[in-house]
Amino acid sequence: MTSNQVLSEVEYNVVGKRPVRPDGVDKVTGRARYGDDTNLTGTLQAKVLRSPHPHARIKSIDTSKAEAFPGVKAVITAKDLPFGSLSKDELGGDYTALKFASDHMMASDKVLFKGHPVAAVAAVNGHVAQSAMGLIEVEYEVLDSIVDVREAMKPGATLLHDELRTNDMGETSDKPSNIATHMSYEIGDLAKGFADADLVMEKEFTTATVHQGYIEPHNTTAFWNSDGQLNIWTSTQGSFQVRATVSNILRLPVSQVKVTPMEIGGGFGGKITAYLDAICAVLSRKTGTPVKALMSRTEVFEASGPAPASWMRVKIGVKNNGKMTAVETAMAMDAGAYPGSPVMQAIVCAFACYDVENGKVDGYDVVVNKPKSAAYRAPGAPQAAFAVESLIDEICRELKLDPIDFRLLNAAKEGTRRIEGLVARKIGLVECLEAARDHDHYKSKIENGTGRGVACGYWPNRGFQSSVVMTVNYDGVVSLIMGSVDIGGTRASIAQQTAETLGIAYEDVKPAVVDTDSIGYTFITGGSRTSFATGLAAISAAEDVKQQMISRAAKIWDTSEDDVEFVAGMITHKSDEELKLSFKDLARQTATTGGSISGRSSVDPTGEGNGYAVHIADVAVDRETGKTDVTRFTAVQDAGKAVHPSYVEGQMQGGAVQGIGWALNEEYFFDETGKMLNSSFLDYRMPTTLDLPMIDTVIVEVANPGHPYGVRGVGEAAICPPMAAVANAVTGATGHRMRSLPITPGKILEAGWDNGTS
Q1: Are 655 and 739 in the same domain?
Q2: Whole-structure pTM value
Q3: Average pLDDT of 427-451?
């Protein structure tokens, strides 16, 4: 077994080191405060009544018995939300978008998935609320449901929304449809590209609905003060996203909503969407007291946002030497009950690992009777990578080409233009492929009964807005305030970049995540943007601090600022070596030279950080039972510069493990009516440590030109290759090509029976 490796290009004093995480002690001692730890005086407990049907019209709701139940303080339905009580003109904004957002929070006319909220109760405790909820009488007209994306796209399919029209490349259709959006991009001459090929392969692939599997359920506490100020404490990846959602649904100015993000017990993209916040807010307004809600595990599965199921058709043309001449794909992803699947990201990422002159990608966003899909680590990209990388493996086996050599021949490089038009800056895919090729794992012998698979993956790692404020205390310790929720090491990585820029010790930076009133707008923590974008904000704020300290030193020395420089935490006079002050020395004098020094910055970086990963998987398949065991796994990824290598290794290993679960075990089971049948961790099978080997990691560092320290995001690309790598390995072990995930024992046995090999 090899140890984890960091292939470093540049060394820094703080960036690239492995300091103690700022939140570590609080979390291991139990002092860290999570959402459910919020206990305000007089807090009521809320429960949500959810639809037992995947698709039904709400004919009537009678809440009178629940309202009369002892201990109940308030009951609400969709009529208590602005959409249910105000006219179209009074609501303002995009009426259809508002209806979708409001109805997602609480159904007004139709329920569109099992678990769809229809009412909520606030009571003196959870038991009373639960009992009262059972007294609410709802009359439904049950409708046909549809959960398969291909069936939903057919003419004459059961419609979820009468008002939904297809946006087809900017043109709106005149008939209702379950297809919310069709998008398409093309480059080169597709027909010529396929005509020039010696081999053309075209196959279809499917993936199932899967959940992020975070440990902490969704929870919210809301208190609507008598002065009109709404305060929310919640488990979220984006406090400003919650603020925007609540203000939009409740038609409030954003300044009237204050959101405090608590520690988060896992998210992986699933805690971007707000589910309980507006409900608790309205209950609080009705009662005049704080209201808390906590989802059960069943509610998390049935009523929060999973990653979408998908159908994909991929076509690739190649020369006999493996050079790709043309590529094409059509992908459809289910958005769940309301538009918004990540199919756009899927088609962008599908062929992003390859330099090909001729290509076309089509994507379809389709609504079905499932909970609205949410982000799950590189949303859309893992499904796309599974399809594309599986077909590439088929081509390599057909032409007897080494899978890494094939990918190196076709690899995207600096200057490569993707099908949707963007041109890559400096990227590290080739370096990742070379590191995988040279790794002991890839060179090792493949044991009998074992298969080996290789796959690539890509995520753009875009920036978006971030804000940071830092204050220099009189003892030289820097208070670092940011709006980015910490879900994977943000406090450590931003503190490291701050310390590196200021030339001070990591221990002298004290990071804190604050509420929406205490910092400027900051986009969600997700999409592998945070260490990059919030890091840029911190670097800019640190440069602001440095300039102010230069000004203070110039004042002390009665000289021009041009004669003062700040290098490696020391402020010196350029022409007088005797005149120098350390960062802490100068900090002690700020009180008498103008007061406290604070640096601030808000950034909105453009462009992409471009994250690439290459995974190698070995699996053993029991021919008698169909059980698949992952026997060895290596993840190679370009981190640009690993700010905190331990965190990066954890992200790489975590993405690999989640992808392995997606490949082999995880899926939503639905009955013939569209009801989920496995909404618990007993029935929704995720991999444990007993199922897996140690995941070896190789961190490749090809500096991102868009960041002073070369940082790229790492959380997303890590989950893109494992499904295809495992599927390709299963083919090597069994001889059967599995084009549908998950690759369950039953599917493997059926493939053997069909081919007469079991």
Answers
A1: yes
A2: 0.97
A3: 96
